[in-house]
Amino acid sequence: MxxxxxxxxxxxxxxGHRNMPVIGLGCGVDKSNLNALKxxxxxxxxxxxxxxxxxxxxxxxxxxGEAIAEAFRLGLVTSRExxxxxxxxxxxxxxxxxxxxxxxxxxxALQMEYLDLYLIHWPISAKPTSEEGExxxxxxxxxxxxxxxxxxxxxxxxxxxxLGLTKSVGLSNFSCKKIxxxxxxxxxxxxxxxxxxxxxxxQRELREFCKAKGMNVTxxxxxxxxxxxxxxxxxxxxxxxxxxxEAHGKTVAQVSLRWIVEQGVTVVVRSLNPERLKQxxxxxxxxxxxxxxxxxxxxxQRRLIPSxxxxxxxxxxxxxxxLWDDG
Length: 327
Fold this sequence. Notes:
The protein has 11 helices and 12 strands. It starts with 7 loop residues before the first strand and ends with a helix. By secondary structure, it is α/β, with parallel strands linked by helices.
């Protein structure tokens, strides 16, 4: 697929008016698969992917950077501006004075001078640690969880954009209420909120809220994170999606991804399989029907990605409802 065919989405608060490719490759893979990730990134670039989504916690920034450096050597891309790179601030560094050093460390691992998008990974902090390994961070101990200093951390995120370390800044896993907390004092509003989204968890209220605030939404785990330790097969095994896929001669994954982009949402999808990488791009030359929407709108809704590692009787969120502002 020629990359020029792939649509892009404008980011409202970015420096230089950056556009984000509608579909990106998620790089949150098991750390034993780093060589496979490098090969997948090269294959993805050949196929037309230009957005690559990583994070400090993934431990894949260095591998992604090496793969992109190789893509430049091979002439698969010829300028940094052809790529869109996202990374994320992990909880241990979600403190005002740690944000700039953290993004600089990510840039060093990626062998880049700037990111296109830098996100606060979760609306929570943890006690700073010096125990970062060679390949990323680890989940915080529950006794180390701390409330996020929304104002202090966001000010530092804005400063990272002003310094040119990133073209845009945003959020991940933030509820409507928590976004409003940021917007109350932001001088650079968040460009993106990246959240779990798929036909089994459609995020209607959050999408409407973000649209009203001029924010884009990016969907992660669009296939339910199937194949991971924390994932679910409830998207890929959904009977309604199977029926729609069969009617169109498409895969369930293509139906889920097509539904997401028809909502005006960008998406990052993880795969190391060359054939699935190609299939996941095959969503731009067909459309879902009204009958398809009737089926999708009747799918029972439930969040699939666990967040129990952030829930603690002694932490800022004592229940999942407090984290997500449900109910």
